[in-house]
Design a protein that fits this description.
- This protein is mainly β and about 170 residues long.
- The chain has a single domain, classed as Immunoglobulin-like (Sandwich), CATH 2.60.40.
- It contains 2 helices and 11 strands.
- The chain has a 5-stranded antiparallel β-sheet.
- The chain is elongated and about 80 Å long.
Length: about 170
Amino acid sequence: MVATVVILATTISVFALGFADDINEPSPTVAQSSGELVPQDGSNDGIVRINHLAGDTVQMSSIEVVVDASDACGKQGRLVNLPVPSGGNDIDQSNIEGDDIFDQRAYGFDAVPGPNAIHRAEYAAGEQIAFRITGGPCSISQGDEITVRVIHTPTNSIIIEETLTAI
């Protein structure tokens, strides 16, 4: 009987004192993804596409895209404050942290099949995040590798990680 009272008192104190508030929700699951890194015709820019093939829909405002191009050009950059405003469709300087390896020009009108989630509120199965890496600070050649991680910021979890080789 004493043990029952102790367990009951402990359970009530956890809820009364708010200790349960420290428990985090699990991160969304992207069950399947793919990606590609394609050098852009006539330049040393690279086009990056990260495809969400199956899994949970994720709010773009709760993700960041980390690009590690250390092997290709010794630089790393991060796309933050997503989604990018859809007015001009350009990546703004406020969307970039780390090395500025991103081509900020509009991307979503040329050579991008399907919707570009970088401009949308949600990233769902069947959509892609697409952007360019500019050849000035980060030249992309055939065989170069980059790693792209999509981070769920509320849980600090990697929900997609793709190592891409330029074809």
